Every structure is written in structure tokens, then in C-alpha cells.
């Protein structure tokens, strides 16, 4: 079973590299890269070039689809939270939520620290 996926860069096949060449001698062609994992475009593109190509072709449509920011977003004490780990003081609270505006620290558990849901996408504490 193979978990290989194709690079999502729309012009990936146009970059002329050895690893993109496929086919018999005399009838070589370049193909989109295929890998088990990619580093760019959140794991969907093989290179910075392909990431940029993707955005140049699809970026505006993605913004239209997910909604553009049409008024300023504001950081207040309600959405200024981040999750942190105290690496330097083993006796102190190892995990805490930190408010960038008030500088308040609230101890949290390790599972809250490791959870993707402890802070909302817009920085609100969800504990
Ligand atoms: Zn690519």
C-alpha cells in the first residue's frame, strides 16, 4: 500500500529536474513530484516555488471562498492568549496559558498544553 501523494503545485511538472523525469529513453517526460510527505503549503507542495505557484493560481479564489478580512481585527485581553511551556524552572508550573496584554499566567495541565482546542484560532482561551 502506498501513501504517496502528488505535489499540488500547478506547475510542478514544468520544473526540469532529474527526479521528475519518467518514461523510456527517447520519450522522456516530466511529471508532477510524488512523495509520502511534503514540507511546503502545509504538507501539499514539494518546494517554495510550487507553494508560490499554487497561491498565484488559487490564492484569490481561496480568499473569496473562506472570506476576506474587511475590517481590522483587534487584539484585546480576551483573545491575547497563548499556550506556553516553562522549560527553565522544573519546580514551577510547567504548562501555562499566557495573556500577551495583561501578562497573566494561568497554570494548565499537560493534556491542555498538548490539545489543539485549548486556544481558539482567534486566540481565545478555551479551557
Ligand atoms: Zn512541486
Which structural category do the helix and sheet elements fall into? alpha+beta
Net shape: elongated
Strand order of the largest sheet: 5-6-7
Q: If helices are DSSP runs of H or I spanning 4 or more residues, what is the number of helices?
A: 2
Helix content: 10-25%
User: Mean pLDDT, nearest integer?
Assistant: 92
What's the gyration radius in Å? 22 Å
The poorly predicted ranges are: none
Number of strands: 7
List the secondary-structure elements in sequence, H or E.
EEEEHEEEH
What does this entry look like structurally?
The chain is α+β, with helices and mostly antiparallel strands and 127 residues long. It is built from 2 helices and 7 strands; from the N terminus they run E-E-E-E-H-E-E-E-H. The protein has a 3-stranded antiparallel beta sheet with strand order 5-6-7. Strands 1-4 form a two-stranded antiparallel sheet. It has a two-stranded antiparallel sheet with strand order 2-3. A hairpin with a 5-residue loop joins strand 6 and strand 7. The chain is elongated. The two termini are 40 Å apart. The model has no long low-confidence stretch (mean pLDDT 92). Bound molecules: zinc ion. Residues 7, 9, 12, 33, 45-47, 50 line the site of zinc ion.
What are the salient characteristics of this protein?
single chain, alpha+beta, 3-stranded antiparallel β-sheet, two-stranded antiparallel ribbon, 17% strand, binds zinc ion
